[in-house]
Amino acid sequence: MRQYLLDTESETFKFIIRFKKENDGISPTLREIVDNTIVKSTSHANEIVRNLESMGLVKIRPWKSRGIVVVGGSWRLDYHD
After folding, report:
1. I need a labelling partner for 37 at 20 to 30 A (CA). Which of 5, 12, 16, 63 fits?
2. If you classify domain 7-73 with CATH, what class do you get?
3. pTM greater than 0.70 (yes/no)
4. For residues 43 and 31, is the Cβ–Cβ distance under 8 A?
């Protein structure tokens, strides 16, 4: 398994953290990810979030539209690729 983030994954992860900081811990929807990053479709956003999950950076609660949980609960923007 690769140990580095692709540009779209890094941008998406940073957007998730920024969104949670600005919205009292609420996660963005896949549509909000598409509207605010270089990701072009919700299916691609879903794939990226699942990749982040497989790397252990987030957990997905599939029964919630805003169900992206940052592992460790830390929403720091000082994450390094």
Report:
1. 63
2. mainly alpha
3. yes
4. no
